[in-house]
Amino acid sequence: MSNPYIVLPVIFQLFVAVTLMFSWTNKNLQKLISVVGSLIALLISILLLLKVNQEGIQTMQAGGWIAPFGITFVADTLSALLVLLTAISGLAVSVFSVGSVRNARIRFGYFPILHLLIMGLSGAFLTGDIFNLYVWFEIIIISSFVLITIGGEKAQLEGAIKYVAMNLLASVVFLTAIAILYGLTGSLNMADLSLQVAKVENRGLVNVTAILFLVGFGIKSAVFPLYFWLPASYHTPPPAISAIFGGLLTKVGVYAMLRVFTLIFIPDTFLTAVITIMAMLTIFSGAVGALMQNNIRKVFSYLIICHIGFMLAGLGVYSTLALAGAVFYLVHDIVVKTNLFMISGLIFKFKGTYSMRLLGGFYKEQPLISLLIAISLFSLVGIPPLSGFWGKLLIIQGALDSANILLIGFIVLGSFLTLFIIARLWSEVFWKDPQELPKKEHIKYFNELKPLKKQAMLASVVFLSILSLGIGFGAEWVMRMAMHIAENLMDPSAYIQAVLGT
Amino acid sequence: MKTIIFKSASVYLLPLLLLFSVFILLRGHYLPGGGFVGGLMASIAFVIHSFANGVENTKNIVKFHPGFLMPVGLALALLAGSLPLFMGETFMTGLWMDQPVPVIGTVGTALFFDTGVYLVVIGVTLTIIFTISEGL
Amino acid sequence: MELLLVIIIGLLYAAGIYMMLRRSLVKLIIGLILLGNGANLLIFLLGKIVKGEPPIIGPSEKMLGEIYADPVPQALILTAIVISFGLQAFAIILIKRAYKVVKTDDLDEMYATDEDL
């Protein structure tokens, strides 16, 4: 169904970014615009999801050029849901930034670039054109480059170099894959490609292209042999920036894989085997990496990798149940990972360090905040009624149906290692006897902040914690939606028909 | 570079190239040209000036920070792109005036979009160049 | 023409990867630039090179008659060039800043991110 307004989440974020640029000098005004803009964006994306739920897949042809010739925007349930989650994380990070980001960074244009990043993310989720997806990816990475370097501390710049190099390489691989795909089929529209790729006789070349896409998206989503840039860079920027990175950037890669490997390339046994093996090794290496770390932000960075493996496992099993599990886990992971990095920022504001060895006694000092943090930590582990449990359950069910015992073993192992890591983190940070930490001059501690800033930081953590509780307790509703998405992913004919209108 | 010929030529080249860049911008709708090329050409005008006279002098010619051109250009392009939305058309559809304007010809939203691109390109390029040449 | 382009693309990719594997930051950027150019030429090649007219419909005609060049690869390359222009400019500024702060352009010397704090 044609609907010209589905690009509104994208256009609105650009509008907010432009408005923020005009109020460059006034930092309080910028904070206000950013929070209000994020609230309105949240409203828009809720409306979009409701509309898609009621009336089915919505499409828009940019400039009125009919598909497959023009650029198509498609909002199916998966896209609309992810746009909604982007808006939710965007709002939380925007509110958290009001409390935590230093004025020097705001003067360098922190807020406009944050909104450009969210615009890029929404665009990547909504587009139905493979080259346009590349363009949105570039918008995302250039905004993230600026965000990761703003401030220019030594570790930040070194992390940024690794991040920039790997992401630029990923873009080149992605572009090469698009070039070959265009040479094979002469089309860029994803729905049209779905039909054209099936007709190509040279299956070997199709598989090579698929692997190129897998490598390109694999670097971006940090899967097993390609993830080394992530733990080297995600712990360097300020917590608000880590939060939006950890919550959303790797997940765009996962979304792109879910889309490309269900719509354009239907995986054969070779491809699913490759993806499954990558998933197992990702889970294992992420979990083992997290075991070795002392910096809590590095622990969370490795846990991102570990849990990307779960989603990849869902894609590797390639059944409706497993894909539904992957989608459910994606929803849970975006909310929880954003929250965890904000929590690490909160702990830093109290104690002035990220080191688990030095931290301790947090529970005794701040029992209420500790309980709040516990919600997110235990959702991450996936203790039953909390949100992490249901996605994993679906993936394991799917893997059982296809009798992939080894994969189940790795998923269970990954879960137990996560449990162990979180338990260790809990006992080190919250229960261990506190040490006397020297006061650091350049840090503004939590109790020195203005009340508004304190409330902003706490409010965003509370908001996401309640949401993750909601996902856990309202699992039936989310699961129904995830099943619907997975059915549409397995049988993309509705998507193709909505875009091409035949 | 401190040669008198280059230095005196740059003074005349700056307005000439700026004028030419506007010509390229306007030419771009049906013929080769357009906002991106025009914008690059305009920034080249400033780059030549900065080569001849030093970056500080070029910064003095541009009275405001070139980064300010970015939001202006983006706003113009955004407006031109989303204007059709208010008329019930899809994003980025070209809307055209009924009557041609003297000299320029028929004006449509595409012209404003391209002008937006032109301004953004100048803003970005000059910001990059001024940043790179800082403290060299 | 095709064969020549294939060889050039292969050389650009090979040189780009080789440069990226070096430890120097400047060579890293040069490698990325070469890779980007290789990818752009690849799009150009895979858009099928034909000797024909530019894809412009004349004022008196309704559709393209003669053999014409595919305009899509050119649009893609232009977009990719614009994007890589921005990214490379950023990367160059970044390595300059990093060089000023870290005082080396050897990637092996950059281990502040691995410190166990």
From TrEMBL, chain A:
Membrane topology: Multi-pass membrane protein
Domain NADH:quinone oxidoreductase/Mrp antiporter transmembrane positions: 129-418
Transmembrane annotation, as ranges: 6-25, 32-50, 70-96, 108-127, 133-152, 164-184, 204-228, 240-258, 270-292, 299-321, 327-348, 368-391, 403-426, 456-475
Full protein name: Proton-conducting transporter membrane subunit
InterPro entries in UniProt: CPA3_Na-H_Antiporter_D (IPR050586), NADH_UbQ_OxRdtase (IPR003918), ND/Mrp_TM (IPR001750)
Major site of localization recorded for this protein: membrane
Subcellular location: Cell membrane; Membrane
Keywords from the named record: Cell membrane, Membrane, Transmembrane, Transmembrane helix
Family: Belongs to the CPA3 antiporters (TC 2.A.63) subunit D family.
UniProtKB/TrEMBL annotation, chain B:
InterPro entries: CPA3_antiporter_subunitB, MnhB
Keyword Membrane: yes
Cell compartment(s), UniProt: Cell membrane
Membrane topology: Multi-pass membrane protein
Chain ranges passing through the membrane: 12-30, 36-55, 67-87, 107-132
Residue span(s) of domain Na+/H+ antiporter MnhB subunit-related protein: 5-127
Keywords, ordered alphabetically: Cell membrane, Membrane, Transmembrane, Transmembrane helix
UniProt similarity note: Belongs to the CPA3 antiporters (TC 2.A.63) subunit B family.
Name used for this protein in its record: Na+/H+ antiporter subunit B
Lineage, highest ranks first: Bacteria, Pseudomonadati, Bacteroidota, Cytophagia, Cytophagales
Automatic annotation (TrEMBL), chain C:
Keywords: Cell membrane, Membrane, Transmembrane, Transmembrane helix
Membrane topology: Multi-pass membrane protein
Keyword S-adenosyl-L-methionine assigned: no
Transmembrane recorded as keyword: yes
Signal peptide, first to last residue: none
Transmembrane segments: 6-21, 28-50, 75-95
Pfam families for this protein: Oxidored_q2
InterPro entries xref list: CPA3_antiporter_subunitC, NUOK/Mnh_C1-like
Cellular compartments annotated: Cell membrane
Family: Belongs to the CPA3 antiporters (TC 2.A.63) subunit C family.
Protein name in the entry: Na+/H+ antiporter subunit C
Native organism: Cyclobacterium jeungdonense
Lineage: Bacteria, Pseudomonadati, Bacteroidota, Cytophagia, Cytophagales
